[in-house]
Design brief:
The chain has 80 residues and is mostly helical. It has four helices and no strands.
Length: 80
């Protein structure tokens, strides 16, 4: 791949990442959790367990934050 083609590919990737980040930022917390779990499932289907685990862990972290913001602290969330 030439230098120019490589730079073009990087610019295309950067534009795509900005688009996805913008879309993701517009989602509600529950939609973000659902999207993160779907992405984790996709990575698992592709055989990439490392990325699947990272997305799944992030989804679980967002779930905990959502429960805490709804008045359920970590103790209450575990008791349920």
């Amino acid at each position: 791949m030439t230098q120019k083609a490589s730079e073009s590919a990087v610019q295309d990737r950067d534009r795509a990442l900005l688009y996805v980040a913008s879309w993701f930022a517009g989602l509600s917390m529950t939609e973000r959790i659902t999207a993160a779990l779907a992405i984790a499932d996709r990575f698992m289907a592709q055989g990439n367990a490392v990325l699947a685990a990272k997305w799944s862990d992030w989804a679980l972290e967002m779930e905990r934050e959502l429960e805490e913001s709804n008045g359920n602290g970590p103790e209450e969330a575990q008791a349920e």
